[in-house]
Amino acid sequence: MRWISSFIACVSLIGLVMWLVCVDLGVYSPLTNIAVSYCDAPRPWGLYFQDSATPQMEGLVELHDNILFYLVIILFGVGWLMVSIIKTYSNTESPIAHKYLSHGTLIELIWTITPALILILIAFPSFKLLYLMDEVSDPAMAVLAEGHQWYWSYQYPDFLNSDDEFIEFDSYLVPEADLEEGALRMLEVDNRLILPELTHIRIIVTGADTIHSLACPALGIKIDAYPGRLNQASVMINRPGTFYGQCSEICGILHSSMPIVIESVSIEKFVAWLQEQ
Are 212 and 247 in contact (CB under 8 A)? Predict the structure, then answer.
């Protein structure tokens, strides 16, 4: 039973270290017992996800944490076993057990069945989340995002402006020389995509010239934009905020100059914004 105690001690130690790292990075707050984030954008030396803003992203984070639990146990279990074997049999005075053993039925069953069971435990929640993310519920509104070299165009096909035309605009990267104080370099745009919170939204994505990809980590979306093809995703942003993303498909020399900024506001503010267009 001595090896069991050593294994449990190793797993407990790594769990404590990971918890301390998360607290230090601002990922986990022991006072509120919830995940926190300083901003919904990439952070220097960030080691964890951005704060979730949609049910899809919450599911992805939960799936990641569940898989990480199994990975930590496997890592330290195999590592402890290797160190123990090396320590025991590196000494020439130690007897070599099972010198002429060619196979072991029990151990072969263990290392075959155990990984299979772990993969099954991982597969079921993974497929469940996959099909839930693929389902598009009855949306209250739609947004069309079109990728260009090298900017994004957005259109609200459910709303008209004062000229009885669809509300649409282009979104370009703000040059570093024009950034306001506190703005994020290579992430700020001149026109943000405004969306209401707590609303089922269908995001339709396409490309105008080459392959692009609309990705926003906090919302848990990454939608490829192919010319001549429409891809879609359904999101419901559950809190107000400003969420940053980038084009995630290499599309040319200025690929890094295609940021995405989505601003979630209350329904009242969204209606007021529509009336201003």
Answer: yes
Kindly indicate the confidence band of residue 8, based on its pLDDT and cuts at 50, 70 and 90.
low
Cβ neighbors of 45 (< 8 A, separation 6 or more) are 25
| Beta-carbon-side half-sphere exposure of residue 273 (alpha carbons within 13 Å) | 17
- Six-digit token pair at 110? 């263990």
Whether the pTM exceeds 0.85: the reply is: no
116 and 184 housed in the same domain: no
β-partners of residue 148 are 151
Asked if residue 127 and residue 150 are part of one domain, the reply reads no
Q: Which tokens belong to 208?
A: 């105008």
* Least-confidence region, from 56-65, 126-135, 242-251: 126-135
Nearest to 26 by CA among 53, 44, 4: 44
**Encoded tokens for 170:** 């282009």
Are 249 and 222 in contact by the 8 Å Cβ rule? The answer is no
Token output for 91:
């000494």
52 and 155 share one domain: no
Residue at 253: amino acid letter: I
Q: Are residues 159 and 252 in the same domain?
A: yes
